[in-house]
Design goal:
The chain is of the alpha/beta class. Helix content is 43%, strand content 15%. The two termini are 33 Å apart.
Length: 222
């Protein structure tokens, strides 16, 4: 039985002009995760990443922390949905940057509403594929892992694809999948056990590399 580790990227740059860039803390989270994998003797047979910059930067940090150099397979189906397009589809007026508490809460209220409508086939945000096509890209990555590998496999992606993978394995409703999505923390690990025929959820949204009190301030979700 193999083990698939799905890792959400480190903290990105919410509220900045370019979200798709790890913050200094996001880089530290990634390096720390790599050091954790090395301390546990976890080595990977294969690595898949989304193609976004925050995905590749996170994997680079993991490599730095673990002194690993396995070349990752880019997998566009592991890229995140466009949250700005989802929000604009239901709230076309400009929003303030989500840097203050109320703006942050409004951002995620609108995002949850947009996700619900998109996943139920009600909303078609500009430039975005249908949710069924998004889901297919994630499931195709899981199928690839099951068919090709037998050991430890690492996927570095975002909250949307990881929650979609969990929802696919557990058969959850869109609303439950969204709730899972919005819980996933930066650099968190979700683990599946897998065979050629199926995946089984082993754990969800864990931060074993940040459990020590010294890293309490490193726990983020943005």
């Amino acid at each position: 039985m193999g083990h698939l580790y799905l890792v959400r990227h480190g903290q990105a740059s919410l509220g900045a002009a370019d979200y798709d860039q790890l913050s200094p803390l996001g880089q530290q989270q990634s390096v720390r995760l790599g050091a954790y994998f090395a301390s546990k003797g976890i080595q990977f047979e294969a690595v898949l990443t989304g193609t976004l910059r925050r995905h590749t930067q996170t994997y680079a940090g993991i490599c730095l922390g673990s002194d690993a150099h396995l070349v990752a397979l880019p997998w566009p189906g592991l890229d995140e949905y466009d949250s700005a397009a989802l929000i604009a589809a239901i709230h076309p007026a400009p929003l303030p940057p989500p840097t203050e508490p109320e703006a942050y809460r409004q951002h995620f209220r609108l995002l949850r509403d947009g996700l619900t409508q998109w996943m139920n086939g009600v909303l078609s945000p500009h430039g975005m594929a249908r949710y069924e096509d998004f889901r297919h890209g994630v499931v195709a990555a899981l199928d690839h892992v099951r068919r090709q590998y037998r050991g430890n496999v690492l996927i570095v992606s975002s909250g949307g694809p990881i929650a979609t993978a969990v929802g696919h394995v557990l058969g959850t409703t869109p609303e439950t999948t969204i709730a899972l999505n919005l819980q996933i923390r930066n650099s968190a690990i979700t683990e599946f056990a897998f065979t050629p025929k199926k995946c089984l959820l082993h754990n969800f949204n864990t931060l074993p590399h940040l459990e020590h009190a010294d890293y309490a301030s490193w726990v983020t979700a943005a």
